[in-house]
């Protein structure tokens, strides 16, 4: 049995990863989810909570299976979402320069018909080279950092910033395919057992 899923995401990168993995899906734009939520300060718990909120924002009146993700970047005790301005992007890139950070993607698979919900997350460690001020300026001027967690896209202009990677690359792009496959399989197994 193949689950037809609804991807609650406006991200073309997530859609591309699902398509490449051969997972059938439709896309729906998720509702606006407040990223500055009062809740968990642990990045893994926050990423899962935000993914769950995205999934729940689109399930009303449906009996479909929804997939939603939320990606955060964490350096030391600081959680970085998407920058709110070019200056904020500069601040984030300076913070990430010449050091390791964690990229965490929370994943929610929600069967709206039964109410079954699976939550998990994937983590990848990434190290940046030392970024020169002119590199940061040029990258911010490109506009690419402004809609990316941590102010960078590893599959784009920031690929040259990477000095080390420990964990799945697709997680840094925004959708850990292996984890999503496992969660969909687990949900399918639960559906078949009922």
Give short descriptive properties of this protein.
single chain; 194 residues; alpha/beta; 34% helix; Maf protein; 6 helices
Q: Which fold name is given in CATH as the topology?
A: Maf protein
Query: Which of globular, elongated, flat, extended, rod-shaped describes the shape?
Result: elongated
User: How many strand elements?
Assistant: 7
Please report the number of helical segments: 6
Low-confidence stretches: none
Percent range of helical residues: 25-40%
| Measured distance between first and last alpha carbons | 14 Å
**In angstroms, what is the radius of gyration?**
17 Å
CATH architecture: Alpha-Beta Complex
Number of domains: 1
Give the helix/strand class. Answer: alpha/beta
**Which band does the percent of strand residues land in?**
25-35%
Biggest sheet record: 7 strands, mixed
From N to C, what is the helix and strand string?
EHEHEEHEEHEHH
Mean pLDDT: 90
CATH class: Alpha Beta
Structural topology:
Blueprint lengths: L4 E4 L3 H9 L4 E4 L14 H14 L8 E11 L2 E3 L5 H11 L3 E12 L4 E13 L4 H9 L20 E5 L2 H5 L3 H17 L1
Helix pairs in contact: 3-4
């Amino acid at each position: 049995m193949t689950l037809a899923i609804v991807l609650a995401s406006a991200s073309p990168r997530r859609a591309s990863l699902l398509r490449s993995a051969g997972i059938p899906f439709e896309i729906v734009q998720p509702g606006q989810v407040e990223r500055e939520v009062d809740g968990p300060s642990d990045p893994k718990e926050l990423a899962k909570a935000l993914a769950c909120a995205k999934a729940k924002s689109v399930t009303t009146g449906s009996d479909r299976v929804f997939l939603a993700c939320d990606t955060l970047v964490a350096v030391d005790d600081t959680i970085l979402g998407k920058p709110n301005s070019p200056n904020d992007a500069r601040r984030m890139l300076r913070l990430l320069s010449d050091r390791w950070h964690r990229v965490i993607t929370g994943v929610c698979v929600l069967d709206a018909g039964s109410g079954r919900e699976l939550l998990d997350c994937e983590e990848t460690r990434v190290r940046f080279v030392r970024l020169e001020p002119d590199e940061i300026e040029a990258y911010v001027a490109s506009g690419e950092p402004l809609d990316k967690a941590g102010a960078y896209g590893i599959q784009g202009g920031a690929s040259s910033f990477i000095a080390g990677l420990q964990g799945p690359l697709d997680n840094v792009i925004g959708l850990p395919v292996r984890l999503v496959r496992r969660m969909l399989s687990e949900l399918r197994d639960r559906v078949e057992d009922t």
